């Protein structure tokens, strides 16, 4: 029998891994791009760019661009490692069973090799073009997402996305580290905003996907503590998030335009969270969670886009009163 | 078995097309990286690129 004889008529072998494993790769370029979680990557690039811009450091534009590429590749690599590790639970959830590994289009070993090699490559590249601290910070971020969050917290505790959210909040600080060699309150406050934004964002999704998470055995808050406790936690985190959204203005990172955008969009974010808290049953509850999930993305985008626009147009830093007041007390540069 | 009969795995036209697309994507990615490394090297060295013994 020739090797062609082992193959089924559709080009797949009968040996099933995740789905049926192809005899040879049938993956498209898009499948490999999907491994990198491009939507998460675009958020990482965007927040890192804002971190770089607000850092008050000076960097050659070519080096700045290359640093962003390194951070983006690191984010993509950690996405591939996450997909490799989570392939078994991804196969059980309707939202994720079409991903390249559970669908059988990419072999798990390929994703692991790609994730590891790009992780090492991106860290080495960032270290060579900027500094060792930035490289170590990027390595820690990849480790935090792939190991601390994916391998440990995600399946162990209902606080998984609270602590794991730090991984998604680090990129502005990594970008600042690449520019200045340290981190400061300028980007620490951006970290805080993304960190507090993550729980209401993901729990709004988890409220409507609790069956999915339950099937996969992931201890998301709605499955462990129940929907009502989740709605309370969403409201608490949103109440913490909205005033923190104004901190960049108080610290002089953002200007008046930022303060207006943060106040108005923060009020809207709080209104959506209250809707989720109040509407607890039926279609109204589902829609309220969907609206909060959708608006939360817009909220973060608005805050960071306004900071970027202000800095680009030279309008930022007009709200530095608190920063001046604290100047002698609070060292803005902590490293 | 005739001499001209193919042996081993024979790719279908769709598999050939996808392999070709993957090859092109890898080529473009490597080319972009090479260009990035070159531009970064010039940016890092800066004006000193001309400061060398002749």
UniProtKB/TrEMBL annotation, chain A:
<keyword id="KW-1003">Cell membrane</keyword>
<feature type="transmembrane region" description="Helical">
    <location>
        <begin position="160"/>
        <end position="179"/>
    </location>
</feature>
<keyword id="KW-0472">Membrane</keyword>
<dbReference type="InterPro" id="IPR030470">
    <property type="entry name" value="UbiA_prenylTrfase_CS"/>
</dbReference>
<dbReference type="GO" id="GO:0008495">
    <property type="term" value="F:protoheme IX farnesyltransferase activity"/>
</dbReference>
<comment type="similarity">
    <text>Belongs to the UbiA prenyltransferase family. Protoheme IX farnesyltransferase subfamily.</text>
</comment>
<keyword id="KW-0350">Heme biosynthesis</keyword>
<feature type="transmembrane region" description="Helical">
    <location>
        <begin position="65"/>
        <end position="85"/>
    </location>
</feature>
<comment type="function">
    <text>Converts heme B (protoheme IX) to heme O by substitution of the vinyl group on carbon 2 of heme B porphyrin ring with a hydroxyethyl farnesyl side group.</text>
</comment>
<keyword id="KW-1133">Transmembrane helix</keyword>
<dbReference type="Pfam" id="PF01040">
    <property type="entry name" value="UbiA"/>
</dbReference>
<feature type="transmembrane region" description="Helical">
    <location>
        <begin position="257"/>
        <end position="278"/>
    </location>
</feature>
<feature type="transmembrane region" description="Helical">
    <location>
        <begin position="40"/>
        <end position="59"/>
    </location>
</feature>
<dbReference type="InterPro" id="IPR000537">
    <property type="entry name" value="UbiA_prenyltransferase"/>
</dbReference>
<feature type="transmembrane region" description="Helical">
    <location>
        <begin position="290"/>
        <end position="309"/>
    </location>
</feature>
<comment type="pathway">
    <text>Porphyrin-containing compound metabolism; heme O biosynthesis; heme O from protoheme: step 1/1.</text>
</comment>
<feature type="transmembrane region" description="Helical">
    <location>
        <begin position="234"/>
        <end position="251"/>
    </location>
</feature>
<dbReference type="GO" id="GO:0005886">
    <property type="term" value="C:plasma membrane"/>
</dbReference>
<feature type="transmembrane region" description="Helical">
    <location>
        <begin position="132"/>
        <end position="153"/>
    </location>
</feature>
<dbReference type="InterPro" id="IPR044878">
    <property type="entry name" value="UbiA_sf"/>
</dbReference>
<keyword id="KW-0808">Transferase</keyword>
<feature type="transmembrane region" description="Helical">
    <location>
        <begin position="185"/>
        <end position="206"/>
    </location>
</feature>
UniProtKB/TrEMBL annotation, chain B:
<feature type="transmembrane region" description="Helical">
    <location>
        <begin position="24"/>
        <end position="47"/>
    </location>
</feature>
<keyword id="KW-0472">Membrane</keyword>
<protein>
    <recommendedName>
        <fullName>CoxF protein</fullName>
    </recommendedName>
</protein>
<keyword id="KW-0812">Transmembrane</keyword>
<keyword id="KW-1133">Transmembrane helix</keyword>
């Amino acid at each position: 029998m020739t090797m062609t004889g082992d193959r089924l008529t559709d080009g797949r072998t009968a040996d099933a891994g995740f789905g049926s494993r192809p005899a040879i790769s049938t993956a498209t370029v898009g499948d490999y791009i999907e491994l990198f979680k491009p939507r998460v990557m675009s958020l990482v690039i965007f927040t890192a760019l804002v971190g770089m811009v607000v850092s008050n450091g000076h960097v050659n534009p070519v080096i700045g661009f290359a640093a962003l590429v390194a951070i983006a590749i690191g984010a993509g690599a950690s996405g591939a490692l996450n997909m490799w590790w989570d392939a078994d639970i991804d196969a059980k959830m309707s939202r994720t069973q079409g991903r390249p590994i559970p669908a059988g289009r990419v072999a798990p070993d390929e994703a692991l090799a790609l994730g590891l090699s790009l992780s090492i490559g991106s860290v080495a590249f960032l270290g060579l073009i900027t500094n060792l601290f930035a490289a170590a910070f990027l390595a820690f971020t990849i480790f935090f997402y792939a190991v601390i969050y994916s391998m440990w917290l995600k399946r162990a505790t209902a606080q998984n996305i609270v602590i794991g959210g730090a991984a998604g909040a680090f990129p502005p600080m990594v970008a600042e580290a690449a520019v200045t060699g340290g981190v400061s309150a300028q980007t620490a406050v951006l970290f805080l905003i993304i960190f507090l934004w993550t729980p209401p964002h993901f729990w709004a999704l988890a409220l409507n996907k609790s069956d999915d998470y339950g099937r996969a055995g992931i201890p998301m808050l709605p499955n462990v503590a129940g929907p009502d406790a989740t709605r309370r936690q969403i409201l608490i985190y949103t109440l913490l998030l909205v005033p923190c959204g104004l901190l960049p203005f108080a610290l002089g990172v953002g200007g008046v335009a930022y303060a207006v955008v943060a106040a108005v969009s923060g009020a809207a974010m709080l209104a959506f969270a209250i809707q989720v808290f109040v509407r607890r049953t039926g279609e109204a509850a589902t829609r309220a969670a969907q609206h909060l999930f959708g608006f939360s993305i817009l909220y973060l985008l608005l805050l960071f886009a306004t900071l970027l626009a202000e800095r680009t147009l030279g309008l930022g830093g007009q709200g530095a009163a608190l920063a001046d007041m604290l100047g002698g007390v609070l060292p803005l540069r902590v490293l | 078995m005739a001499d001209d009969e193919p042996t081993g795995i024979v790719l279908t036209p769709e598999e050939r097309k996808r392999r070709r697309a993957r090859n092109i994507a890898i080529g473009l990615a490597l080319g972009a990286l090479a260009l990035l490394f070159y531009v970064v090297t010039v940016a890092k060295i800066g004006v000193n690129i001309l400061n060398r013994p002749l």
